[in-house]
Amino acid sequence: MNPNLSIYDNLGGAEGVRSLVEAFYPRVQQNELLSPLFPEDIMPVMDKQYMFLSQFFGGPALFSEAFGHPMMRARHMKFPITDRHAEEWLGCMAGALIEIGVEDDLRDFVLQRLSGPAHHFVNTP
Questions:
Q1: Tens-binned pLDDT, residue by residue, of the chain (125 aa)
Q2: Where do the annotations place heme binding (predicted)?
């Protein structure tokens, strides 16, 4: 991991973030706790996730340009999200990061960076 670069650049820019999203969503779809929260046609979700993560990781502000302020907690309030959902989501992300070959220190940093938002979405005991 190069500390002088953004997470976006450390992951390989647009191509790296796209690879991460493509490795992540099959895991989500196979997860019995998470899959019911997602539509059968996952492509629009993947596109939004790609745009959001690009922006969140320090790349271009694709999500805000397309949809305005992310307001991610508000966008997720219609879904019952527990601490277990957050942990399963992070587990899927960890597996995707391993699958695409992200080195340990960068993987740990990315998961730490995503942990706060993942738990911020929790809205159900």
A1: 899 999 999 999 999 999 999 999 999 999 999 999 999 999 999 999 999 999 999 999 999 888 887 666 666 666 889 999 999 999 999 999 999 999 999 999 999 999 998 999 899 88
A2: 119
CB neighbour list of residue 92: distance below 8 Å, 6 or more residues apart: 24, 27, 28, 31, 34
Written out in words, the top-level CATH class of the domain with range 8-120 is: mainly alpha
For the chain, the domains span 8-120
d(CA 55, CA 22): 17
Q: Is 119 labeled as ligand-binding?
A: yes
